[in-house]
């Protein structure tokens, strides 16, 4: 029964590309593309429903509320610590300024007494804090050099000097803080109403070098009236807040641009991969088609080359025959061939007749085999005697 309201709620979030864009905007840190959402519609609906319960960083609404409360408490504690730390740093800077003035000019006795008393009070307080760690830890630690906080408190200046220092401290601290503010103002806005990148850079330099150059910077506004200085100081805080908000806005814009750039980079890479795959397919098809044509042309080339080699072989054979056989030798060979063919025909006729005779002898039976052998022997002897007579007659003629 819950499927109906849920589907109605999801459909109210958007449809098609609008829903995809809303899901991608709700989860900028998630590595999901619009193609993934299109291929997985149920997952897209799940993310769309989940976006109603979590923020862009993935935190739930209750957890986000608790985190904001914790951050507010942390900011409060940080402001409290910064307030104390600023006062302590201001007192230390006043002591440093006194030491610098003492080296370059004569300091009035009451001013010297005030600064020395404040310095001793700060040193004693710091030592007592180091010797009494009970405010920061729950464990008992051994004493440093066997000293106790009570022994250190005995080194405090006289109560009269301390009381006089306390009475003049707010006025002197106000003057010192006002001097620092004027120094910061002189670095931040050298000319009232003009703000540039150079002045912002000077602001950073002022924060780093304020302890050293506060007297010189204070002289920059020496000629201006007290009311104008106070007016500028009054507007300085608002101007700094404005610059801070502008810096935070630029940082948020930079973060959004970074997320957009990352998403576009992923989209570009996916499209580039698709193009590369398409290009590979085209190259493969083109290569196969070209390879077929190339193989066919190679086959035709080798066939033509084979025909040419055969023709060359035939030509060489003809040349060899022409070089070997002249007209006279061909005529002589033709006569020899005719003579041999006539002799071959005569032999074949004789062979045929002999075969007929042998066939007639075979008809007579085995009793004539001895007579045939004797006849063959006599014929051989006659041939041998003819050859011997011929040789003897030739030798006699010579």
Write up what this structure looks like.
The structure is a single chain. The model is unreliable at 1-16 and 192-224 (pLDDT under 50). The protein is built from twelve helices and no strands. Among the domains are: 61-136 and 144-223, no CATH class; 227-303; 365-398. The protein is an all-alpha fold.
Keywords:
single chain, 398 residues, mainly alpha, 82% helix
How do the strands and helices of this protein lay out in sequence?
Elements: H1 3-11, H2 17-26, H3 34-39, H4 41-50, H5 61-104, H6 109-131, H7 149-153, H8 159-188, H9 197-218, H10 226-324, H11 327-364, H12 369-397
Short note summarizing the structure:
It is built from twelve helices and no strands.
User: How many distinct helices?
Assistant: 12
Shape assignment: rod-shaped
Radius of gyration: 62 Å
Give the tally of β-strands.
0
Secondary-structure element string? HHHHHHHHHHHH
Provide the helix percentage: over 70%
């Amino acid at each position: 029964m819950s499927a109906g309201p849920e589907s109605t709620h999801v459909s109210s979030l958007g449809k098609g590309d609008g829903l995809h864009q809303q899901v991608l905007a709700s989860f900028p840190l998630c590595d999901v593309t619009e193609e993934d959402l299109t291929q997985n519609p149920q997952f897209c609906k799940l993310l769309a429903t989940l976006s109603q319960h979590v923020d862009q960083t993935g935190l739930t609404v209750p957890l986000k509320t608790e985190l904001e409360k914790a951050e507010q408490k942390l900011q409060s504690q940080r402001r409290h610590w910064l307030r104390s730390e600023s006062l302590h740093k201001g007192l230390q800077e006043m002591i440093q300024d006194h030491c610098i003035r003492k080296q370059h000019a004569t300091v009035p006795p009451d001013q010297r007494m005030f600064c020395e008393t404040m310095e001793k009070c700060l040193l004693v307080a710091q030592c007592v804090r180091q010797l009494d760690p009970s405010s920061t830890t729950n464990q008992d630690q051994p004493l440093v050099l066997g000293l106790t906080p009570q022994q250190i408190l005995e080194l405090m200046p006289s109560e009269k000097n301390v009381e006089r220092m306390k009475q003049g401290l707010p006025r002197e601290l106000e003057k010192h803080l006002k001097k620092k503010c004027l120094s910061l103002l002189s670095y931040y806005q050298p000319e009232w109403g003009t703000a540039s990148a150079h002045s912002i850079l000077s602001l950073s330099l002022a924060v780093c070098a304020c302890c050293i150059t506060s007297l010189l910077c204070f002289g920059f506004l020496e000629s201006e009236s007290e009311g104008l200085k106070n007016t500028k100081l009054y507007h300085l805080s608002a101007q700094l807040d404005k610059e801070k908000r502008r810096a935070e806005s630029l940082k948020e814009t930079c973060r959004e641009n970074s997320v957009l750039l990352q998403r576009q980079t992923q989209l570009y890479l996916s499209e580039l991969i698709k193009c590369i795959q398409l290009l590979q397919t085209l190259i493969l098809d083109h290569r196969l088609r070209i390879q077929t044509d190339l193989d066919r042309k190679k086959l035709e080339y080798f066939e033509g080359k084979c025909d040419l080699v055969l023709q060359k072989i035939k030509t060489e054979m003809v040349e060899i025959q022409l070089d070997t056989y002249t007209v006279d030798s061909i005529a002589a060979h033709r006569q020899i061939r005719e003579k041999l063919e006539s002799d071959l025909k005569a032999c074949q006729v004789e062979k045929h007749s002999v075969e007929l005779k042998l066939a007639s002898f075979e008809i007579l039976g085995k009793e004539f085999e001895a007579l045939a052998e004797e006849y063959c022997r006599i014929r051989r002897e006659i041939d041998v005697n003819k050859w011997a007579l011929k040789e003897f007659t030739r030798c006699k003629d010579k």
